[in-house]
Amino acid sequence: MAPSRPTGLNLKMNVVKIERLTTSDEGRLRAIRLRALQDAPDAFGTTLEEASRQPFEVWRRQLEQFAVFVSTTGDRDIGIVRGGGHEDCNGAAYLLSLWVAPEMRRQGIAAALVDSVVAWARTEGFRRLVLDVAESNAAALALYMRKGFVPNGTFGTLPHPRRHIREYQLEKKLEPEPPPAMNDVAGHLEVRRLDDRLMRNLDALDEVRAKADLAKYELNVARVQ
Ligand SMILES: CC(C)(COP(=O)(O)OP(=O)(O)OC[C@H]1O[C@@H](n2cnc3c(N)ncnc32)[C@H](O)[C@@H]1OP(=O)(O)O)[C@@H](O)C(=O)NCCC(=O)NCCS
């Protein structure tokens, strides 16, 4: 999987970049996920204990299965988000695992990570992006609403033993790329322009031929006389 070109964000004095992890970045994925699960256990379905026990093979498979973006400053990973296909909803992608290190919050890093998944999902041809968020997670709810996600009426809970944590499902419609019909229209106009030029050239040729015929006729008449 080719890494995407890092994009730079100038945040206060820090330069923060976003990059897509490759399948050989299991160590980085594991390290940042464990930090996230330790920091915000009720924001995610997986527990720190479960994740700590996962072999490297599982982390590597996750890198094949999901598009994983991390935000970095210097050589530190300070934020993560993942995007994947959604098996339940046709045409929908799923955004999950969003987390930003506490010391780096409120600088637009999560917003930029969400943008990365939106861009990825659009490029992959998904029409909707869905996610689950705990109803008590005011910060994440505010962020997602600001990024254009709205509740789609589906509710759930975290898995046992945290079933008491209720979640809303939010979704964002993804506008498709400019439809090919627009290109067809542009192509059609170009053909029309070429047709018009050809017709004008043919008319001009007819005119030249007619003049040549007339000249020939006049010459013949002159000879006869
Ligand atoms: C939710 C979280 C990812 C936000 O990260 P962040 O980098 O601080 O968010 P941003 O700086 O990009 O915020 C963008 C906007 O979201 C909203 N927002 C973010 N955090 C907010 C908060 N604590 N309170 C209210 N609004 C908030 C604001 O509108 C903010 O814009 P503003 O700063 O100009 O007002 C971060 O708090 C976090 O990692 N929390 C723990 C993990 C988590 O809950 N993940 C979500 C799982 S569904």
Task: Summarize the entry for a quick read.
By secondary structure, the protein is of the alpha+beta class. The protein has helices at 26-39, 48-53, 56-65, 109-123, 138-146, 180-224; strands at residues 7-11, 14-20, 67-73, 76-85, 92-100, 128-134, 150-157, 166-173. The protein has one domain (7-181, 193-224): Aminopeptidase (3-Layer(aba) Sandwich), CATH 3.40.630.
SSE layout and pairing:
Elements: E1 7-11, E2 14-20, H1 26-39, H2 48-53, H3 56-65, E3 67-73, E4 76-85, E5 92-100, H4 109-123, E6 128-134, H5 138-146, E7 150-157, E8 166-173, H6 180-224
Parallel strand pairs: 5-6
Antiparallel strand pairs: 1-2, 2-3, 3-4, 4-5, 6-8, 7-8
Helix pairs in contact: 1-3
Bound molecules: coenzyme A.
